[in-house]
Amino acid sequence: SLSPSTSPDSIARHHSALLSQDDSGRGPLPLLRPGKYVAIDCEMVGTGPRGKLSELARCTVVNYEGDVVYDKYVQPELPIVDYRTRWSGITKQHMKNAIPFRAAQAEILKILKDKIVVGHAIHNDFQALKYFHPKDRTRDTSRIPLLNQKAGFPVKVSASLKSLAKHLLHKKIQVGHKGHSSVEDAQTTMELYRLVEVQWEKELASSLPPRPPSPIADSSTDSDQYMDDQYWPSDLNTDSL
User: What is the mean pLDDT of residues 52-67?
Assistant: First the structure.
């Protein structure tokens, strides 16, 4: 068993060890459910000249099981020029109770600290957060040949989340004109990761150099503290009733 303080590299090596034990044909081994994994999705609006600058307006983080641990609307640092509602789902109404960017950034980074973070084209999310996550602790589902192979796509193509969800999960996402749901997208990304988790971690374990063990996280930064918050999107609160 793995403790909560187990380093990501130890988790990956453990995956690899489990796979190496399955050469006897006794059937698939049980998958791990490590608490060190989260998936993230961000929605951006346009600021700056002609709204060409992308700034964070909503961020969702889900755990390994797809449960929401963080979801807030975020007030950009610059005035919003283009809400990009058709894609972002963000409207002026959402900004009335939005949390300031710096406050949101601090909360989100506490959650991501020492985690393996899953995302789709995740560099866009990190750019919106003005943050760089360690490469060996990042899993980008838009750049995984394993998923493309399963979906029947060319290996080097950067497939969209919508296409991968349709072909591999048999679900439709990002439909209609009300914009994307960052909750749905983050959950879908984690589902895709879990489809290829063991094989992907095995490959990474053999290619990544070892890191020092992570320090034990301070319980005061646990993501559970964000479950009851005045800044939660009202539509999400309504859905939970």
Answer: 94
